[in-house]
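Apologies for my clumsy wording, but are you able to produce some protein sequence, whichever is easiest, and the tokens describing how it folds?
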Amino acid sequence: MSEGEPATEEWYSLSINMHRFYGGKIEVLPKVPVRGLKDLAVWYTPGVAAVSRLISSDPDLSFELTSRWNTIAVVSDGTRVLGLGKVGPEAAYPVMEGKALLFKYLGGVDAVPIVHRFSKAEDFVRFLEAIEPSFGGINLEDIEKPKCFTILDEARSKLQIPVWHDDQQGTATAILAGLINALKVVGKKLQDVRIVIFGVGAANTAFYRLLKYMGVKPNHIVAVDKNGVLHPEMKDIDKLMLTDPYQYQIAIETRGGGLPPDSPIEKAFEGADVVVAASAPGPGVIRPEWVSRMNRDAVVFALANPVPEIWPSEARRAGARVVATGRSDFPNQVNNSLVFPAVFRGVLDVRARTITDTMAIAAAVELAKFAEERGGIGEDRILPTMEEWEVYPRVAAAVAVKAVEEGVARRTTTYREELERATEIIGTVRQKINALLDKGLITMPM
């Protein structure tokens, strides 16, 4: 039995038992005093009518007078859940609920899980338009490709609140932050390295876009999907233009990283400095002999969940110097949970209308900087962990300031102002949860 396999089964069993014990992970609690009928007259009828009249005259007041300013929807159709695939909306709900828990605990953001049965992209987008008045932002989750790209692009153009697809933007931002520091550890520069993108799904498609924003030349990148190296002269390239225009664009722009068409997958690893894999759960998806073809001081990100494409020990034995996975029980977890709570904290606090790619890059740079400044970086530490909660206010501040700079914010702030605000909001949530635990109001299983 390989490393990680016993632990994975233990986590599965424990998770099922704990979900059954608690009956879910989140609940709704009032945030205002309710002591009797007078309080109810303020919060509901007749007092609330005055609030409704004000908002009717200026809908943006809903961000000031209701919980909309701090509430987002976590929305999925259940068509590509974790490494499980198309499991349906009901089976997607516990993942959305878990996402809502992380939003609150790590970012102080109130998140509502919403799963639905709209299968067509245009119906999905219309659904988002319909629920927009209830929320300050929308986090899309676990949607099959290429539909996920269309939905994000359409929703960002039509809605006046931030729409973020975490499997794309969140994971890509975390990857970029990890890669910035991994390259510092091995003494290489981003613009000089040869990068293999292994698996051209939601995360790596967005990561490719961020790499271009960072100045990486497309011909320094080799993109590999299940059929081989993406190349302008590959078989069925015309069909790809219709079925997945995003992969088609990558094939045209990278030109196979200079490789001949129909090159075998292992050829992509020759002379590569970095492999970023976000493909199918392993192990054995990436072979050690492929890693051994890479340049000295190689960086390998094997991010498939629940089992990485190659076990970290195998990658290191094959010559990789820095290895990262998506799991918390190995060093160097590259996980979007380091990103999305802080990004939404920042955009909600400035009432942003959208989240741009440059805002995501600002988050990645701040995340990498935090790891370097707090404890330093090394082969087994390229990013902070989720337990280092002070990272979230810093990333929130970087994102908020970038939103103001780019003119997509409804209100202004400075880095210092947002840092203090986000620290207070997130710190208060943690204090409330600790108080409930201390009082026994959050019970512990026997």
About this structure: The chain has three domains: 30-169, 183-325, 337-438.
